[in-house]
Structure prediction request, 366 residues.
Amino acid sequence: MSFQFNFSIEEKAENELETLGDTALQLESAQASLNPGGSTKKSKEISSEENVHKESLCAHEATPKTADPVANCSPDKSQVQVLPKKRAGFIVAKEHNIPEDFSKVLENKVMEAVQGLYYVNISVVEMTLSNDSHEEDIVSKSISSHSDLITGIYEGGLKIWECTFDLMDYLSEAEMQFINKTVLDLGCGAGLLGILALKRKAKKVHFQDYNHTVIDEITLPNVVANCTDGGGDGGISEPPSKKHKKANFIPALMSKCRFFSGEWAEFSQLMLNGNKLFSKYDLILTSETIYNPDYYSALHDTISELLDKNGRVYLASKAHYFGVGGGVHIFEKFIEERNVFRTRTVKVIDEGLTRYIIEMAFKISS
Prediction:
């Protein structure tokens, strides 16, 4: 059974906050990024105009030529200060239930579009969360700490980091095949990598992020918004160009998805020891998850436990993350010392701070 929900396009970015109470799904067309024949580079920076950290972040980057809703400056994990916190405990992994009424997931959400994918306006979500009481309270903690990364509390899932777009570009350029593949978007945040796999006929797509607030307020709405007609045709459909144009929701696409939050080690154990039948992943996609060397062991073990013996990992990262110590070269050295995976660089993006796409596979795989 399918049902319809309304899409509406925001004509001007400055009207977005005024539509916060509007329960209709609203879209803003990003023409430059949606041109099938054009470059996707213009859509590499997600709007963060209301981000309280914008001025300090912009100081480290040259202003790119972009089109609305893409902003001239985006969060950059290579420059973000990470606040160390002593952990009183850990975040237990859990699976998030998918609501029966999908339209409620999109209530009070302002939607935008980039590279043919819908995503919630993150500034509006942050504003809503800061005004409401939430268990994790990650927005107010991030603001009060003047940091987008707080170790053990908040790991940046409310932002869309630029390497995500690098990996999306690579998957398109390489004509990566997702048909009948089981895919994990690890450290998913907005979930754009997993959504891309879903729209290209992946058999199953699982989304995992550290914070459950990110899954409920960012990832789930994004996936729901992209589960519309045209979403399962193997390509990327453009958003409607007129206000209030209806789009058919496709429950079959949503049924391919599962959503999880919690620490990687806990998530791994949940999948391996849970009540549901688990098939290891053919593809694991992850972006900007190696910024902190303290997490390498957990990341390595999670991948080694959940990846199919012939599976592949595609990881996007900056060369180095200042102030944190992580980066591609130190991670590759860690992988080499563990002697479980082989790695190879499949793409280098030499714009500003050098960025890489790395492929990982078991050394014994075919």
Remarks:
- Residues 195 and 223 are 6 Å apart (CA to CA).
- Residues 1-74, 81-89, 230-246 have pLDDT under 50 and may be disordered.
- The chain has one domain: 3-362.
- DSSP finds twelve helices and 15 strands in the chain.
